[in-house]
Amino acid sequence: MTQRLDERFWEIDLLRGVAILMMLFYHVLYDLDRFGGLRIEIHACLWRYFACAIASLFLLLVGVSLTLSYARASHTSSERALFSKYLTRGARIFAWGLVITAVTWVLLRDDLVRWGILHLIGLSIIMAFPFLKLRYGNLVLGSLFLLFGVLIRHLRVGSSWLLWLGLMPAQFTSVDYFPVMPWFGVVLIGVFVGNALYSGYQRNFRLRDRSHVPLIHGLAFLGRHSLLIYLVHQPVLITVLLLMGAVDFDVPISLYLLIESA
User: Fold this and answer.
1) By the 8 A CB rule, do 184 and 124 touch?
2) Distance, CA of 127 to CA of 130 (rounded, Å)
3) What are the helix (H) ranges across the chain?
4) Domain boundaries, the chain
5) pLDDT tens figures, 71-111
6) C-alpha to C-alpha distance for 67 and 76, rounded to whole angstroms
7) How many whole angstroms separate alpha carbon 49 and alpha carbon 61?
8) Contacts of 173 by beta carbon, 8 Å cutoff, 6+ apart
9) What are the helix (H) ranges across 1-44?
10) Nearest-angstrom CA–CA distance, 53 and 72
């Protein structure tokens, strides 16, 4: 069936909603481990892989969504207008990242978010624009970003100016850190997936419409509002856990009404 340009792909919203649920589950465990006294060992290897899977799913879907929006808008807009659109969108997401940086600087000081996932997504939306028409080239480039990210992850430098790239100073700490290497590679691989599976804003595979199923409809709703949920979920979770008596603080509560790493 032909997809209209004003229609969304419900399966993309569904997957983003699944990522939202995974993030909420992880952050409940994180809050209980850090503030509730439960020995969950949230920084153990298993949970680190789980957190990495959440971030990877989000960023993969960023790449897929970029190809979909580009295919939809390219029918009516010039390349210059499209670049302006992505520049504005990326800057807006990046600005939210700067808000997180400012708030965490006030409340967390040394653990502030210097380069978190919103900074990365904002920059990625702009950086990915020249590659949105590529298919296998994005698979190669994305793999190279992943490889270089692995190669430099233990390298330490003398300043923080290259944090965005993946080069950290000694003793660097942050509650949220997603540098360009390797994570932009995941976005590029998402662009490859989008062009391979949804070329011309059409599915290149058969999929029965399940969007009317209540559970799927609910998850897709979460997926359509992922940015808002990401911004407010930690304050809401902390408030609920406090009301339940599941967490306690020896410091002002406002210190932790923030977004933690995904």
Assistant:
1) yes
2) 7
3) 10-35, 45-73, 79-108, 117-127, 136-152, 180-197, 214-224, 226-244
4) 10-256
5) 998 888 889 999 999 999 999 999 999 998 888 787 667 77
6) 15
7) 18
8) 110, 111
9) 10-35
10) 29
